[in-house]
User: Fold these one by one.
Assistant:
Number 1:
Amino acid sequence: MSEVYFVKFGRHVSNIVETMRRLLKATKYDERVTQGELVAIKMHFGERGNIRHVRPQIARTIVEFIKKKGALPFLTDTTTLYSGFRRTAVDYLETAAINGFSIGTVGAPIIIADGLLGRDYKEVKTPGEMGSVAVASAIAEADAMVVLSHFKFHVSFGIGGALKNVAMGCCARKTKFDMHAVAKPEVIEERCVGCGLCARHCAYNAISIVNGKARIDYNKCVGCGDCVAICRFHAVRMHWGGGEHAERMLKRAAEAVYGVLSTFEEGKVLYINVLTDITRLCDCATSLETPLIPDIGILASYDPVAIDQASVDLVNSMPAYNPKKDGTIEYVPPGQDKLKVFYPEIPWWILLEEAERLGIGQRKYKLVTI
Ligand code: SF4
Ligand code: SF4
């Protein structure tokens, strides 16, 4: 059974720096890194305009903790498939600075792991449908890694936690395409008002407006899901083929995690899930969506499966506020399955099950409250 360390937020908790120090000390990660080692801190700096991403103070506390050992931490992420301000390393570094991340604020350099245009990677063989995974160079070449994830719901994966952060976030575009390619969006015509927002955002020119409705050209669509996130009328959804497409995508994601982790020695990767600002959309979104769940706290573990399972269980133990289309808010009581409320069509657990089958971790865990 894997241990998952937990700091619960509440009136008794003093501040984020002290809290992070306490959590990191409990993990004893400083005993696992040595002088001169390159330590990637893998995180998402937020899309330009997003305010729900992990705060710079949290990253800075991790940087200081690692530097005390004489190791060389750097913050990192990869470029995106979709349009927005993270599609090239130049865009992304500017966005990171706007969102508060720079060497001045976090105390370590920021390196975009897959290069200027998402083409820098090391290919590793994997036991699955994809057969190999393109691990972003700066991650493949690092000696150790801290996977710092904002835990929230996600339009394609159901949940965005440690496993998603490694699967999609540590791979170059080649593997991002391979994962997304099995799922495609569909337009719900009765909801579409023909505003054209999705067409303007689609980086692959796959959407046109025909007779006042969005139409997707599946020869061009790569399945990135940007149109699902951008539509303000909930008129685009992922088409999961009765679950078959979702299952394939989630299994491929587990294969990607396997590939990324194969570039590290055992015990060199620490996972931290921040359970605050839990929204329906991920940090790639720019809408000012209100959080659905009260802030919970921060988790840390050496097992990415256990930490994601613990995060889901904690979310389900809390109440939620579900904004409805008519402007009312539905109260969802503690104990009710929140994934069934927010993403009933996504079999999110397949990623955890497949990761467990591949020996990446286990869903059974022991919560250690500190
Ligand atoms: S953004 Fe939504 S409502 Fe607007 S055209 Fe696209 S699908 Fe239709
Ligand atoms: S149509 Fe396809 S490629 Fe374009 S934004 Fe939607 S999912 Fe991405």
Number 2:
Amino acid sequence: MTNNNEKTGNTIGFHDTSDSDSNTNHTNQMLLRLKKRVQRLELLQQVSHELGSERDLNRLLDLILNRTNQVLDADRSTLYLIDDPSDAGPHLVSKIAQGMDGIRLPLDRTSIAGTAAMSGEICNVEDPYHDERFNAEVDQTSGYRTKSMLASPMTSPDGTVVGVVQVLNKLDGGPFDAEDEQLLLAFSTMAAIAVENARWLEAQKQTFEDLITGQAIAIDARDHVTGGHTWRVTAYAVEIGRTMGWSEQDLEILRYAGLLHDQGKLGISDDILLKPGRLSNWEFALMRSHAYKTKVILEGVKHLFPRRLRRAVDLAPAHHEKLDGSGYPDHLTADDIPMGARILAVADIFDALTAHRPYRSPMPDQDVIGLLRKDAEAGKLDSVPIEALASCMDRIVTIRDEINARIKARKRTFQVVQGVLP
Ligand SMILES: [Fe+2]
């Protein structure tokens, strides 16, 4: 029996089956599109959140590329950064290139990625093989077939283009649309901010490192008699800490404390610091004041230390403290002397007695270990770092030889420069 609506084509009262199917399909498509948009927004929000918590640049960029593929339904992505080596001029260098080896492109309009970087605008190429800027050699080398391409500049908030994100091949086989363009631009901006932040953090880290090592060089340069003491004590302390199973972060704190431990010697006059013979009681007291001076100097610049490294400021001046309270500058006792300072104390004494001096021969390593153990038995030093030192002597000897060879070479360079040596 035929429905009246079918005869009359009435679509107001009752829908026929085909109209109903068509409407259902239309609604489903709308829902799918809406779902996709919500999914994209969620991913965008997720990446934005991940951006704030991931500090490693490579992991972050890798994450952004994976999410870009996911959200754009793309097969592959490449992330280029602008590299400016002084000899070859600016280039686009692939930081992460999925499925390909490193790619290097000149920063000009001869490539699609280069055009995006130069113009600061997104490039949507529906058929790359008919675009003269497309380099098919990359496909030939990798065995890949590029069918569609979207390249977006990575523009930082101050307007500087730092690189390009390029996505290849929409998974449904079609071209990338306007919505894809908007989304990739958003992702590229996030990547640009991530790069800028990571570079800024790296520059901060390097500045701090240069500042501290500069101080260590200045201390060592003051005192040619104990040349290399700062570097050896630092390296010994780190090796002892490593043997004791310390984390890399704690070793980093210990390293900075080592580099700064004798900072206060900058405030000791040459007459005392460089005196070859025995010091009088008064001179010895002045010499000992270097630990207090280290404390005062470091307290004054503590705010310049990144928070995670500030403990170095407490460790460095305490390297002459003794567990029984007989040390200096604060006569701290066991409960108040952190393990980092106890390690530095052992490393400091070990170097002082095993290093060459113009007025005496270096004491054999094992004899010094014996003296340190006696100090531990007397309740002055901690036996844990002493035993750690004793158990890694092979490595300590290698470290000492390396540092001494470096210092000898540097001294010779200075002497040649100053005309002391031919
Ligand atoms: Fe010292």
Number 3:
Amino acid sequence: MQIPFNKPYYTGNENDYMAQVMANGKISGGGEFTTRCQDFFKTKYGFNNSLLTNSCTAALEMAAILIDIKPGDEVIMPSYTFVSTANAFVLRGAKIVFADSSPLHPNLDTETMEGLITPKTKAIVAVHYAGNACNMETLLAMANKHNLYIIEDAAQAIDGYYTFKDGSCKPLGSIGHLAAFSFHDTKNIISGEGGLLVINDEKFIERAEIIWEKGTDRSKFIRGETTSYGWVDLGSSFLPSELTAAFLLAQLAQLEKIQNKRLSIWNHYNNLFANSNFETPNIPIYSSNNAQMYYIVLNDIERRNHIIEHCKKAGINTAFHYLPLHQSKYYNSQHDGRDLSNCTRFANSLLRLPLYYDLGLEDVEYVVKTII
Ligand SMILES: Cc1ncc(COP(=O)(O)O)c(C=O)c1O
């Protein structure tokens, strides 16, 4: 038996949607399918202002430009995250101040991070690891008190929700000033490469569209609001082609079906591990579960290596990440030397198990039996 770690799921309508784009005769970005995707996000999650991007990385880079990151600014984020979370801000000259993870979850430890804020701090990046919400109420209070931006790195968080203490509930991506999603192959909803920038703070709306369109006011021109367009600000090629948007729309049309299937797989894993000694995901009470990934946390790196090898021999491909960014070759000399022990624990001992739409429940049983 061979069980890959990930297998992209195709709804069956992607070809048809992409053929429509080709028949329309406009395959570059910003056309009908881009608008239809953005409308989907408006209707489903109330993201009134969003822009499709080439990746979550691109959306984070746009966020860094929008909040005017300059050399000397400090940005706080978890060390346990993907390199793009940091790179987007380093590209604009920011100093990254890495925070530790919570002891119970790879997300930011909001109990201990307020001391990292200085007069130079401009933003906190809240990475919703595994699609599980960060403690947004604590982060929002910190941001209000110190006048900071909150950027949600929601790469893994599509269809995730946060429940506030008063019982109200909001989709992840709608809470910070800006938010970035990913539609990379390993995510719940995919377009190969792809992403979304959500603009919640209205003061960024006009500039976001300009940055998206290579620093020009072309979008205004297309809407007939100006007679010509030109270079008005910083920008880059952040918008994806209509082919990518068409692929994405086919996926979005089946979001509920995809989410239900992934949740049933996730729950099956969790039930099967329930009576074992393995540490399983600890989902905070204020967070929903979007079934982005299933992981177990082992005692140490030796135990993890042993299980990875054992699974490989049984035909099961597992994965781990991230190498802590504060210890990375590129950035360790700029880290201030603080020990981030929860981050290193997750980096050394978290193991991701296969989770994709076509994974059978009997495959899940085989994986769990092999590991136990
Ligand atoms: C937390 C986080 N941020 C950003 C990214 C970058 O996403 P993309 O590949 O769409 O650029 C990833 C990728 O998996 C991620 O996990």
